[in-house]
Inverse folding.
């Protein structure tokens, strides 16, 4: 059994303005890192387009229509101060959703042990009817709903370790009692949400704000004290990771001081949870990470652990 990696050429055709942090070079560097011979045993798959019904698992038709209609014929447009669309952006976002759906299918049917979706744009800030923070559709939340509704999974956990609070995923799963959303993030930092009192409609949300300039020691202690016990109590049948790598010490958008070793430790511990509760079933999707060298090295470290743990 192997690790699958899903990606697609459409991720290269979502163009943001010059100087934008969420740039094409991110996915180019990730794909280049995963072409190293160390990754030869990966099961490389195309991230397919999704169906409209996939998007409608979490968003109203009006949001899908608005995103589709907003795409410019040339150049780029700003949906807000951070979130841009170019020709090809809708298709890229659809393939990001489709990659996550296909990754869930491959893991749930036992074709592969675990999977990583190397995609952009990211998804965890998109709310029901609001693109936000570089994100158009809520990829991780849609993947969770897909597992619940179509694979008849009883409990899905989504762990989001991007440095920014996953407000979108949290909103999309807020009243879904079959899901547990756990997000760690720097606070204070955009978008400013993710306080401990945000616990979900069914006590199904856990947020873990971490102070600027804290490092992997506090992250590890926090996950040991709060996250792993909560996951053990919930006993997920599938673990979805919103894998942002912008908590890295070199990232320009935030001030946490994690290293590649911290991402290795965290991935190993989350795989331990998956081994204990769900036969190792992990689907990980790329969110942030804006220092290109740190992003490439961190993704390589993360996928390397997934490969070691594939069984
Ligand atoms: Zn982020």
């Amino acid at each position: 059994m192997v690790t699958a990696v899903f990606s697609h050429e459409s991720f290269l055709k979502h163009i943001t303005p010059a100087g934008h942090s969420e740039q094409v070079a991110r996915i180019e560097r990730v794909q280049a890192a995963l072409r190293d011979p160390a990754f030869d045993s990966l099961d490389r798959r195309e991230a397919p387009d999704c169906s409209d019904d996939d998007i409608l698992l979490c968003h109203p038709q009006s949001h899908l229509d608005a995103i589709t209609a907003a795409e410019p014929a040339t150049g780029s447009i700003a949906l807000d101060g951070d979130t841009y669309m170019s020709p090809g952006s809708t298709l890229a976002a659809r393939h990001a959703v489709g990659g996550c759906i296909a990754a869930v299918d491959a893991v749930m049917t036992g074709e592969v042990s675990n999977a990583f979706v190397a995609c952009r744009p990211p998804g965890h800030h998109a709310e029901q009817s609001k693109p936000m923070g570089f994100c158009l559709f809520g990829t991780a939340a849609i993947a969770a709903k897909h597992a619940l509704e179509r694979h008849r999974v009883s409990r899905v956990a989504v762990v989001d370790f991007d440095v920014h609070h996953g407000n979108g995923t949290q909103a999309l799963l807020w009243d879904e009692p079959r899901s547990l959303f756990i997000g760690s993030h720097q606070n204070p930092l955009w978008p400013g949400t993710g306080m401990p009192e945000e616990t979900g409609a069914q006590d199904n949300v856990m947020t873990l704000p971490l102070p600027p300039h804290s490092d992997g020691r506090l992250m590890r202690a926090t996950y040991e004290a709060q996250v792993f016990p909560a996951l053990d109590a919930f006993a997920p049948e599938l673990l979805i990771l919103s894998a942002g790598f912008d908590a890295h010490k070199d990232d320009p958008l935030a001030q946490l001081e994690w290293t590649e070793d911290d991402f290795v430790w965290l991935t190993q511990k989350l795989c331990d949870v998956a081994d204990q509760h769900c036969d190792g079933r992990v689907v990980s999707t790329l969110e942030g990470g804006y220092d290109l060298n740190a992003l490439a090295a961190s993704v390589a470290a993360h996928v390397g652990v997934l490969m070691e743990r594939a069984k």
Notes: The chain is about 40% helix and 15% strand. The pocket of zinc ion is lined by residues 162-164, 244, 246, 287-288 (CB under 6 Å). The first helix runs from residue 24 to 33.
